[in-house]
Amino acid sequence: QVQLVESGGDLVQPGGSLRLSCTASGITFRTYFMGWYRQAPGKQRELVGTITRYGNTNYADSVKDRFTISRDNAKNTVYLQMNSLKPEDTAVYYCYARVIGTEFWGQGTQVTVSS
Q: DSSP secondary structure string, 84-95?
């Protein structure tokens, strides 16, 4: 059935970089609006950024100019490149997929930024 699987979460030092991947199955990936969200302990889930089927992106102010979302429709995969990481970026990161009438979520991957 439909599945979104994230990978790439890790422990990284402040100022470091990390790339998350989300691979989808069970959907016509190229038609879906995709996004990344994150949730830190004790905080509400927040939008990180989105990418349309055509590659247009949008980012939260907190990550703008540091994070980049991209997609490879041939691989059914969306990426989140994270640079200049800060401790406040520590969270579980979730992949999101939407088309008219339905939406799906991944299981999440832990990103920890600490020295």
A: S--GGG-EEEEE
